[in-house]
Amino acid sequence: MENLIALLIAAPLVGAALLLCGGKRLDRTGHWIGTLLAVASFAVAAVLFTDMLGRATDDRALHQHLFTWIPVGGFHADIAFQLDQLSMTFVLLITGVGSLIHLYSVGYMAHDERRRRFFGYLNLFLAAMLLLVLADNYLLLYVGWEGVGLASYLLIGFWQHKPSAATAAKKAFLVNRVGDVGLSIAIMLLFTTFGTFAFAPVLDAAGTAGSAGEGKVTAIALMLLLAACGKSAQVPLQSWLGDAMEGPTPVSALIHAATMVTAGVYLITRSGALFDAAPAAQTAVVAVGAVTLLFGAIVGCAKDDIKKALAGSTMSQIGYMIMAAGLGPIGYAFAIMHLVTHGFFKAGLFLGAGSVMHGMNDEVDMRRYGGLRKHMPVTFITFGLGYLAIIGFPGLSGFFSKDKIIEAAFAKGGTEGLILGGAALLGAAITAFYMTRVMLMTFFGEKRWDPDEVHPHESPKTMTIPMIVLAFGSVFAGGLFSINEAFVHWLEPVTSLAHGHPPFGATVTTAATVVVLLIGVATAWLMYGRRPVPATAPRGSVLTRAARRDLLQDDFNHVVLVRGGTHLTDTLVRLDHTLVDGAVTGTAVTMGGLSGLLRRLQNGFVRSYAAQMVGGAAVLVAVTLLMRGV
Amino acid sequence: MNPVYYLYLAALLFTIGAAGVLIRRNAIVVFMCIELMLNACNLAFVTFSRLHGNLDGQIIAFFTMVVAAAEVVVGLAIIVTIFRTRHTASVDDASLMKL
Amino acid sequence: MADLSFPLLTCAAALPAVGAVATAALPAARRTAAKWVALLFSVATFALALVIAFRFDPGAKGPFQLTESHAWIADFGVRYELGVDGIAVALIALTALLIPFVILAGWHDADTLEEARPNRRWRPTQGFFALILAVEAMVILSFEATDVFLFYLFFEAMLIPMYFLIGGFGDGASGADEGEAAARRASAAVKFLLYNLAGGLIMLAAVIGLYAVTADQLGTGTFSLQQIVQARASGHLTLGTGTERLLFLGFFFAFAVKAPLWPLHTWLPGAMGESTSPVAVLITAVVDKVGTFAMLRFCLQLFPQASSWATPVILVLALISILYGALLAVAQRDIKRLIAYASISHFGFIILGIFAMTSQGQGGATLYMVNHGISTAALMLVAGFLISRRGSRLIADYGGVQKAAPLLAGTFLVGGLATLSLPGLAPFVSEFLVLVGTFSRYPVIGIIATVGIVLAALYVLVLYQRTMTGPPKDDEVRALPDLRVRELVVVGPLIALLLFLGVYPKPLTDLVNPAVDHTLSVVDKQDPKPEVRVDAVPGHHRAGHPAHHHDAEAAK
Hints:
The complex is a heterotrimer.
Chain A: H1 5-21, H2 30-53, E1 62-72, E2 75-83, H3 85-108, H4 115-134, H5 138-156, H6 163-194, H7 199-206, H8 210-231, H9 240-243, H10 249-258, H11 263-270, H12 272-276, H13 279-302, H14 306-326, H15 332-359, H16 377-390, H17 397-411, H18 414-443, H19 461-482, H20 486-495, H21 506-529, H22 542-548, H23 553-599, H24 606-629
Antiparallel strand pairs in A: 1-2
Helix pairs in contact in A: 1-2, 1-4, 2-3, 2-4, 3-4, 3-10, 3-15, 3-19, 4-5, 5-6, 5-10, 6-8, 8-11, 8-13, 10-15, 11-14, 13-14, 13-18, 13-22, 14-15, 14-17, 14-18, 15-16, 15-17, 15-19, 15-20, 16-18, 16-19, 17-18, 17-19, 18-21
Chain B: H1 4-23, H2 27-52, H3 56-86
Helix pairs in contact in B: 1-2, 2-3
Chain C: H1 8-25, H2 31-55, E1 65-73, E2 78-84, H3 86-105, H4 111-116, H5 124-144, H6 148-157, H7 159-168, H8 178-218, H9 225-234, H10 241-258, H11 267-274, H12 277-302, H13 304-330, H14 335-356, H15 359-390, H16 401-404, H17 406-419, H18 426-441, H19 443-468, H20 475-478, H21 485-503, H22 506-523, H23 546-555
Antiparallel strand pairs in C: 1-2
């Protein structure tokens, strides 16, 4: 059975190779080949899943060793895969949502002349993401980690003829690289500390590293956190995600909502044993998570671009997950659970947004939408269900997973628990506010578009079917997972499980969650539902304007990094020319001057040469005589 | 007679020749002075041959004569060519060999 | 020891030399024939290099194999001594592999000169390809030579054909008129020559010094690397600390100029920028590798103590090279100069790995030499194809090429991604090994060097964005033709190789590891041990790493 693991990755990888190297012959069938291979990968995952369910709880992990990759001295890296419950969860999410989005893209990209290449990139992404979650050591994970970064780069910049898309792609890759430095250093630290970077031995040894090792383990954990911040768009490396919306919408749904951006959560959960042994690092993790969940939510409130509003929301929801993962064993399982349900409803929301854009001539400004519910009923209903799920409406997916995280945050105990829980509750209120705003501006109210130019229409079946499937997930997944805590117990062998001691009962938390939810929805309705939305954005308060500009983070980057960097490199270029090269050129000039002096002796007069010869001969004779005298 | 006197004579002739090369401008005179220096050398060689009692010096003197003859042939030809083109035989006028 | 069945190593160097003569001898009218003859000889050399690689037995005892040894200048103890270790085999294979691609990529580089002066004695094509083959022969010989004097001879001699290749052939894309371009080319060539000659002369003094010391202490002077290493190990030859350091510096200076190491690097951007791109590949991917290779073979093995003494300074210089090269690459306006500065950054990594004195560092550095050769060749040659289409090296003259020539843009991107060490492509393996190897002994330097990977991403992606993406710059860009068959034949195999060595570098590591272990044993250094003994932890068996058990046993 374990031999099937490689097949999971191989199927989309073959697809990518075929589509990218196949040439024009595949233009007409390429998208179906790509979709089929994604579905094939999902089928293999399903087979592996049923097999895994059939085995005893502690015997579910599979291991496949393909070949030795880099053996140099004590450094030993393998191409080897590990499929346990955590990886399985991700594999199902990636291949499942991935297949749906392939299908959606068949319709969405129907008129793009480079569709074949788009599917090639999507398949490449699937392969890299599966490699990331299936790797059995950190170095192989790193390969997948950068692989998804590459796929993300290619897909964000897919419409390369737009300079903004090319810039956004470059920015995403660069910011991610900063995070990758963290992962690199973490792997090096692992190697020097433990002599290996395979998961099993490292995680087993993490707890027993002793007091001497705690500093090292903390450093490793902090570096892993840096990596997670880059990939999962957490503060302070969050700035790329909003720009990444330049990519085609299916890409935003798959990569920048459902799967790739959650890789940071996977990394932290997978390295749980390391974080558990480093309390200081855990504090950093929850801090990052809490700050980002508020940051993303605030940014999401101010954006008029529907995709950017959703991007802010993604940032915020991943903040929840990171915070949960930072709580330790009381949070890991809930982080993953929220990750899965978020995968469903956020992918669904993005696909819905794509569907709206598809019907509205690629308009993204919500101030030019309005009253679309009559024109796009399927989109409206699926989007609406996703909306109810994300705000945590009781009974839908988001309610179960988010509620558990808030509960776990309070259960952390002490002041820290209160701050985290409070932040999470506040985040829930803001989430309700900005999602209601999106909903109202898009589907309700007066139409703010010109009926002569725009003809909103429902999207084709290839697009609506994935939306419907994802809507089902958004509604039922959370409930299903929570029956007898099935999901938590499924993950328990990998993430271990602990129950905290919340200061007040679960009912109180739930009630509080519902109350803040209602407050958020009501506020949004008062502001955007009761009175008409202006078609051009009002100037807004200082905070609104700052939030529109991603809380000025880009301006900071521009001034400090871009301008400062340009200044530095220009100075260096000058120095290279004047100082480094100048030193050498200076020597050359000095030599040239000396030879100029010597050249005067060569005046071309025969008699002067003769005199020099005679003089020279006389000197030689004199020297010879003197030497003999000595 | 002490053969060393011949060496003094050779040194004197050589000095006259060298001074002539350095001082005179006329190429022909310079040329003759060079011949004078060569012959001074020949005289020295022959003297040494006599002093040491072998024939090496005399053989070299013959070589020198042959080389001198060859040199005269080439040298005069060059001087004549320069004289034809520049209408002067002054060595200072022909200073084109500098960079 | 001496396996005299067949002088494989001599043949590997003689073949391109013969090819050079044959190419040069062809009459002016047969210039197409000259190209094919050159290609044929280079391919045959590659075949021979493969034979060497397969005949070489990595597990065999003794540092050198396939050795040949003949007396040459007996009075000075100079011998014609050849021999290869795993590192040399890998680099010979790299050289022999790249030359056919260089020749193919430069197929039309001499054509413009051909038209410039049509007469029967004018044979630039023959000259161009003969010079390339001559460089190949000398580079291969310097990889093979185990006699210091023999090495020095070819190390210096290769400057002559390189000088003519840089100064004589341009890409006509500098934006200036041909007269000024020729002047700039000439000055770049002279700069190249002067820098390298200066390094070489100082090395010559050290070579003579080495001879004097051996003559003094061993009775008969010798240049033989093996003899000197053995004599030092057995205590017959003891160098005074001061002497050893001076000699080391003499050797190192020459190699640091060739490599090039900051601040001796300024000849490289000029030489690479002004020459045609195949020649630029020849400089950075082939000739410069002799410098780093010689550090491993001669500096470390002849002067182990002095190498340890100089390590801190050299590591800092290498670190400066990495960051400095990358930062300057970001600010370049000329595509080829950008790649040249990127190469300076990469050479910093190689030197860092060599002097980290760990098996990962040196193994990584050796792999880096090979991988950097392939990746730079891919990037530079595609850049050359691009430049030859538009006739300009300036980044600002491009934009939106992707739309007109997607294949060209795609291969350019792959070359760029290899340059920024994307995992899955070969350079990643070597760069990571170098970083780990450095980090395990010098953590701070390792961490700072890691920042280099962000800068690498910056200059590659900026270059790609400015040249390939966006709307097409003008009508000329819109009409750029995509890659031709000949160009695909050049780039395709290189990219395939980058992928293969990125996923399965084991053949290369197997080849290199024993040689690295030998070098480290000569220098008397061992890898630092991990701080936490994982083998003491229960449940470790799950990992099932054979090498790991091996380590654990060694630790006991």
